[in-house]
Amino acid sequence: EVQLVESGGGLVQPGKSLKLSCAASGFTFSGSALHWVRQTPGKGLEWLGHIRNKANNHTTGYLASVKGRFTISRDDSERKAFLQMDRLKAEDTAIYYCTLGWFDHWGQGILVTVSS
Amino acid sequence: DVVMTQSPLSLPVTLGQPASFSCRSSQSLVYSDGNTHLNWFQQRPGQSPRRLIYKVSNRDSGVPDRFSGSGSGTDFTLKISRVEAEDVGVYYCMQGLQTPLTFGGGTRVEIK
User: Fold this and answer.
1) Nearest-angstrom CA–CA distance, B109 and B41
2) What is chain B's mean pLDDT, rounded?
3) What is the pLDDT of residue B35?
4) Which of A19, A50, A110, B107 is the most exposed place for a label (fewest CB within 10 A)?
5) What confidence score (pLDDT) does residue B86 get?
6) For residue A44, which residues of chain B lie inside 8 Å, CB to CB?
7) The B67-72 sheet, strands edge to edge
């Protein structure tokens, strides 16, 4: 069974950093691309970026508004993907999901709250 | 960026009756290989989104056949032939043609 489990969320102050993890099981992780998507009541579902598989050199792509602040990485040996979020703002408050390359499987989501 | 527009915002439906909702993209979603990269997702209350339909009309494994997707180019439709109570939630379309990948604002299905 495919499983994606996000962790690392919580309350963080504006301007600080947070790193989310996505632990995967039940599929060939190294062969899969992964995406990060967030959801807010105001903006709905928002794609943040992706990381391709090793065959595609682990290339990344980002939403313009988070490029330079957010970094996606992966560790195929640990079967994990990561979302490093720097210089966080109040508007980054959302539920963050990792999803498989074709959006056919999603994690349960993790809440990030940016507030002083 | 490709803008995805869904309508209606909310759809009250009667159990056992059909429901239909629309998704329009600001540009054609047809890729150079001929595939059209339009997905539909269902998000039940308190749950993560779940993909129902990919490439316009292909149902995912386990998705009841009362769900069907259709459309082409820039206009797409998701239909539920007979709404059941478990269909309550928000339905989103998403284009997978080009980055940034973008979602529609969703249609909320509720029971009358």
Assistant:
1) 13
2) 97
3) 94
4) A19
5) 97
6) 92, 103-106
7) B4-7, B19-25, B75-80, B67-72
Say if residue B79's pLDDT is above 90.
yes
In three-state secondary structure terms, A48 is strand
Distance CA A103, CA B54 (A): 9
> Considering chain A, what is the average pLDDT of its residues?
96
Distance CA A105, CA B4 (A): 22
Is any Cβ of chain B less than 8 angstroms from the Cβ of A103? yes
Residues of B in contact with A27 (CB under 8 A): none
> Which residues of chain B does A106 touch, with a Cβ-Cβ cutoff of 8 Å?
48-50
CB pairs under 8 A between A and B: 44
Q: Determine, for residues A103 and B94 on separate chains, whether the beta-carbon distance falls below 8 Å.
A: yes
pLDDT digits (tens, 9 = 90+) for B50-59: 999 999 999 9
- Arithmetic mean of pLDDT, A78-93: 97
Contact state of B106 with A107 under an 8 Å Cβ cutoff = no
d(CA B29, CA B75): 9
